[in-house]
Recover the amino acids of this structure.
């Protein structure tokens, strides 16, 4: 018929392992027999009756198992339906096929990465054996060693550093590779916490500014309604938000579609005509990167001058809007109203003023302001890209205040803005595997780890250090689990590489991963980890979600790979902590335990693991019949249910921020501040283009880079507008050089009108691949990004950079 | 009943999940795609002042496989009668009869036919015939995170309001009578010079 | 070029050249003109050439197939597919050309047989060229779907066929007679007709290109290569004329014919390669 019968052009890794876990034992024996299966299974079914059929679903000679997608840190959580053949290999992947697919309980349909997972799972380049560095650090030369040797080495190095410097010289860095409980950095964190701790960190690379700044306004980060509520909105602004390309909760894009079907008008504000602009919105408004606060301020100007603001709401629920509302002690300070009207600085924040800065026409700003303020209830959803920028705190707060002054807070169909974790309870836990308390109480902002290597002992609270006046130690040992931060995902790759190459600074680096990543190349010791399909696991939603998805072990770990949990358990044994670490639990036991955790908290009705496994839907989902609305009770009765802000109200003016005494960088009301690399600055003379690195469809950060089906679908390119390309004599597909003072990238370009002139985009996450001249040939945008952090959150501003592009490279 | 695809171009996010679902289902190597997602764009940027830019740019996506046409030109052209149409509308290729002359491929105006590099046989979307036989829907259809792809009865799908199969760059419908119902993107009505801007990703050679 | 269709370039050209040679042999036999050549010998040489050309053509056509074993089904769709019909006609013609070769080799005296076989083979050849042209006239390929295709294929038949025949003719004459060679006027007429057909293709319009989505067009006929092609045709014609002048005075002139032939063949290869390269389809 067709080429299903033809030669299979894809070569999976041969794995002899048969499935041998609980509930599969009978089938497992058959699986061992391979070819036996096709002939015998139906007979077996007859004989054994329904009991077996309940445990597994059989399609011809394949088993069908529904499981969580190893989503890594993808922004979603979805169900994969895995077809496992008689050799124990996954031969096909479908997705959630529960009937219904309603708004309340939609299918968790996998994205392109989940559907391509076989190509990652069966990739020939997976790490197979423990390895020890032979060449210089960073050179990428290794030799195979045994697990015993490897674990002894890691144990002795941890002991050595612990003895010589103390636990606070050890860092288990940020790493988002896995949240399935059994795999991932949380396992290492648990072990270190049992063994005296390691240097703490707070914040994330994702949300530094938004999670830090939101509570100054609202006293909490749980500011989001459950997403099903979007269908009650009349007007939705997706501000720098791109849920069609980056996943921000499985189904967010689908819910926006539903809202539109319900009559909502959707506007997308983004320098790129993202797929969300194309597929989810009625209107796209390109804006110059880093200038959103100017537009937000001009919207406020329009709203206030045209009296479209909700005065009653402001009076009752807010402080600091104008001079009448200033907090005690700040009566004479600049209110939000003052800033917008230009009372103090002499610059009214008119749409004309904003047009010059943002490149958005004044009339458009006015129209959007009117629409947003009058077509209520309305949503202003803030993406995280624009807070991963210089002064990223300002755009967060400004985006919280527009909902407040228009009275969109605490009502169905409205949206308070900010981080918007899901009401009522903050939503998914992500990680329930208990890491325990860290005996080292000192912590640093996550983004500042290179500083803590270089001059940790000089770092204090002014650089975000918590729990100590100064750090006790510089970082001396890094145990990097499920992370590509060290080289690839942190800013200024060339700088990080230089720091890490110096073995006198960080004395030992262990990397636990599935692939030879750019970070792994800088390891002294590499430990090969199995995939999430090769161990037990469990996930709930990413930012949103009302479900728990189980991840039964599909295959045995191939070659000499082990789960992170098992590696840690074996290390724990060397520290004499085996029992404390494992509590005698197998990997599956932990998942059983985790299900119990959900039963006792978010989902009292969740069945036990055995039942979940037998049902083989892969998940427990709690339908959202009546979506929760954040701040509903506050709205109902603010005196009974005050916010956890100092005033108990929405703080348009924050006295806390005011008291920090840094009005230029941390103003008490949100202000437009020109970024430190800007088209309006001196630097634009040499580097006239703003460069973004958006989160790409083909990858989860650096995970999935180089997976053939994904690269085919979304090749790594620098995207550039035809006007900028023409100026530089660049033709579509040309290799171009993108550079600034920090580094150089040479990759092919894609000319597209779907990005503003003056802006280029290099999707973040490509694996750094320097050639002999140090020019990255794969397109890791972090070669160009800056290590400078934001003033309040000490957050990464990796989207704020200027570059130049030349053709004929 | 005759099977057909419905595709809502107005809300397709170009995420290519359908493309990869198909590749996985049918084990297609890199370079061979039975479903392609075309990124269409047109329009101009307008300068305002000395540094500002106003967009006159429009864009939409088209996800397209074989349309199992009512009058398949591929079938008519094939010298070997290797292409046949079933009662239920599915147009399939009998690989044993195919000699790989590529004549069908020249003719199909939907770029739906692809020579398999390993087998040397012409291949294309099978409408996931095996699934259909089992009462399941095609892989691409059930994969779509936006739920903009559907498979169903030709008559019914064509009767949906707003269908317009003449969305650029689709050829005149009368050539092959595709079993396809497209809900066009609002911007498709714009009189601009459209281009396929991801040619590199959909190239077929 | 769609998938670098060189095998098809040469298959179609050689098939057409083969037909052209036999067409000339046929006309030559009807109107030997003022030649002193032995019709029998020349016909045999023509049959040899025609057969060899067609054999190579067929072999090349197989190179184009990725699953040649399945070619056994190629005659399944005579009712609808011009390719099916072409394959039928190409095989028929090749077979007849083979019979003709056998006849000229082993039964040279049997004039009756030749009188039937030669015209039938020529007819089959012309029919083959017709099917060849029609198969490219695909509704969805506007650059091909025009009478231009038909006319230019027949132009190849006439031009290259006559040029090859002239070479054969003059070579044979060199060997066989002591007289100054005479000219087969009929063949020169065919050559002239070929040139006219080529010129005629210039005025045949394309159909429906304006409305078509030219999105995937690689090249549209024209450009520097086509200029070279026209120059070569002119040069070939010139060489043929020079040859005619020389013929009055000298015996050894076939070199000019060979050069003219080379010019024509080269020109036709360029034109045919461009024909394939110009492929684009409406739609996607
Ligand atoms: N496919 C995919 N999905 C993912 C991830 C992934 O790697 N791949 N990662 C997940 C994770 S961990 C996170 S934290 C989130 C990240 O989610 P985000 O941070 O929201 O994603 P980004 O792509 O960085 O930015 C979103 C949009 O902001 C735009 N943008 C950039 N700068 C500006 C600006 O100054 N103003 C405006 N208005 N827009 C701007 C970009 O063009 C982009 O379209 O995504 C999650 N989802
Ligand atoms: N320029 C720029 N840089 C950015 C961003 C940006 O927008 N722009 N975004 C930032 C954001 S939001 C984030 S969240 C970070 C993410 O940065 P990271 O947390 O480093 O995420 P990944 O790059 O996905 O790296 C995860 C690693 O874990 C490995 N892995 C996967 N599964 C497992 C497992 O089960 N066990 C183990 N041991 N390893 C596993 C993967 O192979 C991969 O190498 O990047 C940040 N970096
Ligand atoms: S969104 Fe995440 S969990 Fe869902 S399929 Fe994609 S990668 Fe997997
Ligand atoms: S999966 Fe759906 S939304 Fe994504 S490209 Fe295909 S049709 Fe479009
Ligand atoms: S789309 Fe093309 S391949 Fe499919 S049936 Fe129609 S003509 Fe044939
Ligand atoms: S390639 Fe195969 S299916 Fe297509 S026309 Fe030739 S023989 Fe028929
Ligand atoms: S119906 Fe099946 S074969 Fe056709 S494009 Fe969809 S997944 Fe591929
Ligand atoms: Mo993130």
């Amino acid at each position: 018929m067709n080429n299903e019968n033809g030669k299979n052009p894809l070569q999976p890794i041969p794995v002899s392992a048969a499935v041998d876990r609980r509930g599969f034992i009978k089938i497992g024996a058959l699986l061992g027999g391979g070819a036996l299966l096709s002939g015998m299974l139906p007979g077996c079914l007859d004989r054994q009756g329904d009991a077996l059929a309940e445990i597994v679903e059989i399609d011809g000679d394949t088993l069908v198992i529904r499981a969580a997608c190893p989503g890594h840190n993808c922004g979603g959580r979805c169900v994969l339906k895995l077809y496992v053949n008689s050799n124990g290999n996954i031969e096909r992947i479908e997705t959630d096929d529960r009937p219904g697919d309603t708004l309340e309980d939609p299918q968790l349909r996998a994205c392109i990465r989940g559907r391509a997972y076989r190509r990652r799972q069966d990739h020939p380049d997976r790490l197979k054996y423990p390895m020890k560095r032979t060449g210089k650090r960073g050179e990428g030369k290794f030799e195979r060693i045994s697990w015993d040797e490897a674990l002894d080495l890691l144990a002795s190095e941890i002991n050595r550093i612990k003895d010589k410097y103390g636990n606070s010289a050890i860092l288990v860095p940020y790493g988002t590779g896995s949240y399935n409980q059994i795999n991932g950095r949380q396992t290492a964190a648990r072990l270190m916490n049992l063994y005296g701790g390691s240097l703490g960190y707070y914040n994330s690379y994702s949300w530094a500014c938004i999670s830090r700044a939101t509570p100054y306004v609202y006293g909490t980060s749980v500011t989001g309604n459950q997403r099903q509520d979007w269908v009650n909105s009349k007007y939705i602004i997706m501000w720098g938000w791109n849920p069609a390309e980056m996943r921000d909760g499985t189904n967010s894009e689908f819910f926006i579609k539903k809202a539109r079907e319900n009559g909502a008008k959707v506007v997308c504000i983004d320098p790129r005509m993202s797929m969300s602009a194309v597929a989810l919105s009625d209107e796209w408004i390109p804006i110059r990167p880093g200038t959103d606060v100017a537009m937000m301020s001009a919207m406020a100007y329009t709203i206030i001058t045209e009296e479209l603001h909700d005065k009653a709401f402001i009076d009752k629920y807010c402080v600091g809007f104008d001079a009448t509302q200033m907090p005690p002690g700040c009566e004479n300070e600049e209110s939000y109203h003052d800033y917008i009207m230009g009372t103090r600085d002499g610059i009214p924040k008119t749409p004309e003023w904003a047009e010059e800065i943002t490149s958005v026409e004044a009339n458009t700003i006015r129209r959007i302001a009117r629409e947003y303020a009058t077509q209520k209830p309305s949503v202003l959803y803030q993406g995280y890209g624009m807070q991963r920028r210089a002064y990223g705190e300002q755009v967060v707060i400004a985006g919280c205040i527009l909902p407040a002054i228009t009275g969109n807070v605490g009502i169905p169909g409205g949206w308070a803005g900010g981080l918007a974790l899901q009401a009522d309870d903050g939503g998914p836990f992500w990680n329930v595997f208990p890491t325990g308390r860290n005996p080292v109480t000192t912590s640093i902002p996550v983004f500042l780890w290179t500083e803590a290597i270089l001059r940790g002992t000089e770092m204090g609270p002014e650089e975000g250090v918590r729990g100590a006046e100064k750090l006790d130690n510089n970082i001396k040992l890094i145990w990097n689990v499920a992370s590509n931060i060290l080289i690839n995902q942190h800013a200024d790759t060339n700088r990080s590489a230089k720091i890490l190459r110096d073995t006198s600074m960080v004395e030992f680096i262990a990397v636990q991963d599935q692939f030879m990543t750019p970070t792994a190349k800088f390891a002294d010791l590499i430990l090969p980890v199995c995939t999430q399909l090769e161990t037990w696991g469990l996930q709930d939603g990413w930012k949103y979600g009302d479900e728990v998805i189980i991840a039964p072990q599909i295959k045995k770990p191939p070659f000499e790979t082990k789960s992170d949990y098992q590696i840690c358990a074996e290390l724990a044994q060397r520290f004499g902590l085996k029992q404390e670490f494992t509590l005698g639990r197998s990997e599956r036991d932990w998942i059983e335990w985790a299900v119990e955790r959900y039963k006792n908290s978010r989902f009292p009705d969740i069945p036990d693991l055995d039942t979940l496994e037998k049902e083989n839907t892969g998940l427990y989902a709690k339908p959202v019949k009546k979506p929760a609305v954040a701040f509903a009770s506050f709205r109902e009765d603010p005196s009974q249910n005050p916010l956890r802000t100092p005033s108990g109200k929405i703080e348009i003016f924050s006295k806390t921020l005011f008291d920090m005494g840094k009005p230029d960088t941390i103003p008490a009301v949100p202000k437009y501040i020109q970024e430190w690399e800007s088209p309006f600055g001196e630097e634009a003379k040499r580097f006239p283009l703003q460069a973004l690195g958006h989160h790409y469809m083909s990858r989860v950060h650096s995970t999935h880079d180089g997976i053939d089906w994904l690269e085919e679908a979304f090749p790594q390119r620098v995207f550039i507008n035809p006007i900028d390309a023409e100026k530089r004599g660049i033709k579509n597909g040309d290799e171009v050089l993108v550079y600034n003072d920090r580094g150089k990238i040479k990759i092919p370009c894609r000319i597209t009108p779907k990005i503003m002139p003056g802006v280029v985009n290099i999707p973040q996450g490509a694996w750094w691949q320097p050639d002999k001249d140090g020019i990255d040939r794969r397109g890791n945008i972090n070669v160009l990004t800056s290590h400078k952090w934001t003033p309040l959150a000490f957050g990464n501003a990796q989207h704020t950079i200027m570059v130049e592009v030349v053709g004929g490279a | 009943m005759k099977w057909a695809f419905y595709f809502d171009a107005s809300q397709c996010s170009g995420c290519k999940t359908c493309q990869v679902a198909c590749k996985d289902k049918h084990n297609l190597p890199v370079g061979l795609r039975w479903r392609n997602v075309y990124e269409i764009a047109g329009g101009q940027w307008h300068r305002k002042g000395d540094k500002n830019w106003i967009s006159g740019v429009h864009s939409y996506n088209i996800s397209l496989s074989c349309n199992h046409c009512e009058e398949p030109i591929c079938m008519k052209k094939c010298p070997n009668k290797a292409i046949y149409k079933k009662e239920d509308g599915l147009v399939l290729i009998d690989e044993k009869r195919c000699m790989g002359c590529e004549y069908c491929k020249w003719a199909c105006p939907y770029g739906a036919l692809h020579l398999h590099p390993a087998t040397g046989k012409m291949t294309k979307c099978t409408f996931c015939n095996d699934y259909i036989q089992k009462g399941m829907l095609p892989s691409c259809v059930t994969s779509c995170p936006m739920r903009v792809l559907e498979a169903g009865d030709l008559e019914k799908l064509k009767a949906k309001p707003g269908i317009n199969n003449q969305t650029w760059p689709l050829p005149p419908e009368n050539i092959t009578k595709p079993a396809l119902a497209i809900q066009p993107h609002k911007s498709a009505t714009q009189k601009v010079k459209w281009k396929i801007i991801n040619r590199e990703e959909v190239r077929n050679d | 070029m769609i998938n670098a269709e060189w095998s098809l370039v040469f298959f179609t050209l050689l098939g057409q050249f083969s037909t052209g040679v036999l067409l000339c042999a046929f006309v030559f036999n009807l109107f030997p003109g003022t030649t002193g050549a032995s019709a029998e010998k020349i016909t045999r040489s023509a049959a040899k050439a025609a057969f060899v050309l067609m054999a190579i053509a067929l072999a090349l056509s197989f190179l184009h197939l990725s699953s040649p074993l399945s070619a056994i089904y190629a005659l399944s769709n005579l009712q609808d597919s011009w390719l099916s019909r072409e394959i039928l006609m190409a095989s028929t013609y090749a077979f007849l050309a083979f019979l003709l070769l056998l006849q000229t080799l082993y039964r040279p005296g049997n004039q009756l047989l030749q009188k039937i076989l030669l015209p039938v083979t020529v007819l089959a050849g012309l029919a083959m060229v017709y099917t060849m042209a029609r198969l490219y006239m695909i509704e969805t390929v506007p650059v091909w779907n025009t009478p231009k295709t038909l006319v230019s294929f027949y132009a190849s038949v006439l031009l290259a066929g006559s040029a090859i025949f002239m070479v054969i003719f003059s070579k044979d004459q060199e060997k066989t007679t002591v007289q100054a060679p005479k000219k087969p006027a009929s063949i020169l007429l065919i050559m002239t007709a070929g040139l006219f057909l080529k010129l005629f293709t210039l005025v045949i319009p394309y159909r429906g290109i304006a409305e078509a989505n030219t999105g995937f067009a690689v090249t549209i006929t024209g450009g520097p290569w086509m200029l070279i092609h026209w120059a070569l045709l002119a040069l070939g014609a010139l060489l043929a004329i020079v040859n005619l002048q020389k013929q009055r005075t000298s015996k050894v002139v076939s070199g000019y014919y060979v050069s003219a032939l080379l010019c024509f063949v080269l020109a036709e290869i360029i034109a045919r390669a461009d024909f394939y390269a110009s492929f684009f389809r409406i739609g996607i």
Summary: Chains C and A do not touch (no CB pair under 8 Å). The pocket of MGD (ligand 2) is lined by residues A 72-73, 174-178, 183-184, 205-206, 388, 481-485, 488-489, 512-515, 517, 529, 532, 564, 693, 695, 700-703, 764-765, 781-782, 785, 798 (CB under 6 Å).
